[in-house]
């Protein structure tokens, strides 16, 4: 029986599912840790910033410094929240899209390449938010963002976007191929 | 596959785990879900990489439509109006990114469930249509962002809500309720 007669799903490789589930687990743990260790995390970040006054432009005047520290702490917290949110979402995106790739793409090489890009991109991208947060105390807001951007967000985000559009194109192509003449 | 051991005869009341192939939805539905996910991802990247360009474009559109935004000629007031319009346009793009990812996944998994659990072909077709229309819901936020710049905040919001967000949102809700009812009615 051909696929067109009885369309069914094909499961992606097990390592892909493991990576996706691990991403979701990391997101859950991240979310839980943010709530449970909020005070400790804030204290750690604040101590890190105070240890690098030049990086953050601290001048030693309490009124000025507190405002700078507060802004950096908000970004630190935002990075953790965005990691939590993106890792959960991208875990599901990996499962859904790799299942489509496993089902629709016939060429083994193309299928493997697309699934690898989707998995690496989807699992790697959220880590950028964690990297950003962790680097803020030592490198400052902008430098930490630049490092996370070029080290993680650009390569992994590009991988995901390219793979998703390629997959959409291949699904459209597959629809055209199956259409009766 | 069963949970009965190999050396023990299986009794009738023992629980049997069976696996079966799971049907998938039509490729057209899968394609809409994928495109929505891809658009959501791309919008997220654009928001991050093209922020100044987007802000400049939004400011230029406000300047090109002064009447729609109630620009008065008073610099202080006009700056506030422009900032508010830019913020709204950026919010539209941000909502599009968020909903594109989320609704893309909802469309994918809900139609996968429809394919797997709804036995009637006609019911499946109706649910696919409702859910796919609902899957286009995030586009309403893209229109919202653009319409606010062209027509002003109130008129733009009204347009996006009335013609896109409300009907497409209702379609998604109707599809999900239909799926719930079909799954509840299903006999084992």
Distance between the termini of chain B: 19 Å
Shape of chain B: elongated
Q: What is the mean predicted local confidence, pLDDT of chain A?
A: 93
General form of chain A: elongated
Helix content of chain A: over 70%
Number of strands of chain B: 0
The CA-CA distance between the termini of chain A, in Å, is 20 Å
Question: Poorly predicted ranges of chain B (pLDDT <50, ≥5 residues)?
Answer: 1-6
Radius of gyration of chain A: 21 Å
> What oligomerization state is this entry in?
heterodimer
Largest sheet of chain A: none
Helix amount of chain B: over 70%
Low-confidence stretches of chain A: 1-5
Beta-strand content of chain A = under 5%
Report on this model:
The complex is a heterodimer of chains A (181) and B (188). Chain A has one domain. Chain A contains seven helices and no strands. Chain A has helices at 14-36, 38-50, 53-56, 62-104, 108-124, 127-139, 141-178. The longest helix of chain A has 43 residues, at 62-104. Chain B is mainly alpha-helical and 188 residues long. Chain B has helices at residues 27-49, 51-64, 66-69, 75-117, 121-135, 139-151, 153-185. The model of chain B is unreliable at 1-6 (pLDDT under 50).
Keywords:
heterodimer, A: 181 residues, mainly alpha, 7 helices, B: 188 residues, elongated, disordered N terminus
Compact summary:
The complex is a heterodimer of chains A (181) and B (188). Chain A has 181 residues and is mainly α.
Summarize the SSE layout with pairings.
The complex is a heterodimer of chains A (181) and B (188).
Chain A: H1 14-36, H2 38-50, H3 53-56, H4 62-104, H5 108-124, H6 127-139, H7 141-178
Chain B: H1 27-49, H2 51-64, H3 66-69, H4 75-117, H5 121-135, H6 139-151, H7 153-185
Helix pairs in contact in B: 1-4, 2-4, 4-5, 4-6, 4-7, 5-7, 6-7
């Amino acid at each position: 029986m051909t696929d067109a007669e009885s369309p069914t799903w094909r499961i992606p490789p097990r390592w892909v599912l493991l990576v996706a589930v691990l991403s979701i687990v990391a997101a859950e743990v991240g979310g839980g840790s943010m709530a449970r260790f909020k005070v400790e995390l804030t204290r750690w970040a604040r101590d890190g910033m105070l240890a690098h006054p030049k990086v953050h432009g601290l001048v030693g005047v309490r009124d000025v410094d507190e405002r700078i520290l507060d802004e950096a702490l908000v970004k630190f917290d935002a990075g953790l929240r965005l990691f939590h949110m993106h890792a959960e979402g991208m875990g599901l995106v990996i499962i859904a899209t790799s299942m489509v790739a496993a089902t629709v793409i016939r060429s083994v090489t193309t299928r493997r390449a697309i699934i690898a890009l989707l998995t690496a991109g989807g699992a790697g991208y959220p880590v950028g938010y964690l990297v950003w947060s962790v680097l803020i105390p030592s490198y400052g807001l902008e430098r930490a963002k630049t490092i996370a951007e070029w080290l993680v967000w650009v390569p992994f985000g590009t991988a995901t976007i390219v793979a998703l559009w390629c997959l959409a194109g291949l699904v459209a192509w597959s629809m055209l191929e199956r259409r009766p003449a | 596959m069963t949970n009965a051991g190999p050396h023990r005869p299986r009794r009738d009341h023992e629980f049997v785990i069976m696996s079966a192939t799971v049907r998938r939805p039509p490729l057209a539905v899968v394609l809409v879900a994928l495109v929505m996910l891809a658009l959501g991802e791309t919008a997220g990247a654009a928001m991050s990489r093209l922020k100044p360009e987007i802000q400049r474009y939004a400011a230029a559109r406000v300047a090109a439509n002064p009447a729609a935004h109630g620009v008065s000629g008073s610099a202080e007031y006009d700056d506030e109006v422009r900032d508010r319009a830019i913020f709204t346009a950026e919010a539209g793009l941000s909502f599009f990114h968020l909903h594109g990812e989320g609704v893309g996944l909802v469309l994918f998994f809900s139609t996968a469930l429809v394919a797997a659990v709804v036995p009637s072909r006609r019911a499946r077709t109706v649910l696919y249509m409702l859910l796919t229309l609902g899957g286009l819901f995030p586009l309403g936020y893209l229109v919202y962002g653009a319409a606010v710049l062209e027509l002003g905040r109130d008129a733009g919001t009204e347009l996006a809500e009335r013609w896109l967000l409300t009907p497409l949102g209702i379609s998604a809700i109707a599809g999900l309720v239909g799926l719930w009812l079909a799954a509840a009615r299903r006999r084992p």
